[in-house]
Automatic annotation (TrEMBL):
Membership in a protein family: Belongs to the ankyrin SOCS box (ASB) family.
Lineage per the UniProt record: Eukaryota, Metazoa, Spiralia, Lophotrochozoa, Annelida
Location of the SOCS box domain: 200-247
CDD domains according to UniProt: SOCS_ASB_like
GO biological process: intracellular signal transduction; positive regulation of protein catabolic process; protein ubiquitination
Start-end of each ANK repeat: 64-96, 97-129, 149-181
Keywords in alphabetical order: ANK repeat, Repeat
Organism this protein belongs to: Paralvinella palmiformis
Name of this chain's protein: SOCS box domain-containing protein
UniProt-listed PROSITE patterns: ANK_REP_REGION, ANK_REPEAT, SOCS
Cross-referenced InterPro entries: Ankyrin-SOCS_box_domain (IPR051573), Ankyrin_rpt (IPR002110), Ankyrin_rpt-contain_sf (IPR036770), SOCS_box (IPR001496), SOCS_box-like_dom_sf (IPR036036)
Length: 247
């Protein structure tokens, strides 16, 4: 009996010490300018959850307009991506270079994150919109240097030679004709002896059907919450499955 009580008190003491350590760590992150960014970089999902619960803004961008969701996608941290989206992170937010989180996830090569972002309504064809006067001046021919060239998610996937990701993006309506600021289409970033090259060339030669275009538009209009309620609608099963990409 005495041994049991001693063990119980020791467990309570260790638990209290652990809670105190977590509290101090949490306060240290809160003191930073961008706590969510730093927590994600540190891969502390426990603290990320607590910061979200405590009301930290999930869409707060740093001086380069990079949001926590950008950071999570660049890091290939699927758990953080999932937590941020569930907390209301903007799936189509753009950083100072015009990149959205989907582009960053494709750059990292994390297929799970890409699938989740697409399910939440990520734009696979964002318009070229570089937000600073310096970027705009560059596009007009000014003699300045820009660190990053605008590319789409499909450009990233093609450059990374990721066939599953290219296929997924095409299924969600990624435009094979989109060009970067250098005038290159995604196919130009692949080798001619790869499956991706032939996949993209086929897509260029076979435009989307009207039915496929309707699916892209319907999914975009419904958004993730609407798609979750699609099964409740009195529609033919085959039509609901088609919109949901179910076999």
């Amino acid at each position: 009996m005495m041994l049991h009580l001693a063990s119980s008190k020791l467990f309570d003491l260790e638990t209290k010490q652990t809670d105190n350590i977590l509290f101090m760590e949490l306060q240290a992150f809160k003191a930073l300018s961008y706590p969510l960014h730093e927590v994600i970089i540190s891969k502390r999902h426990d603290l990320l959850h607590q910061l979200i619960v405590d009301g930290c803004r999930v869409n707060a961008g740093n001086f380069d307009a990079v949001t926590p969701l950008h950071v999570a996608c660049l890091a290939g941290d699927f758990t953080s991506v999932q937590m941020l989206l569930q907390a209301g992170a903007n799936v189509n937010v753009r950083d100072i270079d015009g990149a959205n989180p989907l582009c960053d996830a494709c750059n990292n090569g994390n297929l799970n994150s890409v699938e989740l972002l697409l399910d939440y309504g990520a734009d696979v064809n964002p318009k070229l919109s570089l937000t600073t006067p310096l970027h705009e001046a560059t596009l007009k021919g000014a003699n300045v240097n820009v660190a990053k060239t605008h590319i789409t998610s499909l450009h990233q996937a093609a450059a990374n030679n990721s066939q599953p990701m290219v296929q997924l993006l095409l299924e969600y309506g990624a435009c094979v004709y989109a060009t970067d600021t250098g005038g290159k289409r995604p196919v130009h970033l692949t080798r001619v002896d790869t499956e991706i090259y032939h996949l993209l060339k086929y897509a260029e030669s076979n435009p989307w059907t009207l039915m496929e275009l309707c699916r892209f538009r319907l999914r975009w209009s419904l958004g993730v919450k609407g798609l979750q309620q699609l099964d409740k609608l009195r529609l033919p099963t085959f039509l609901k499955h088609y919109v949901q990409y179910k076999s």
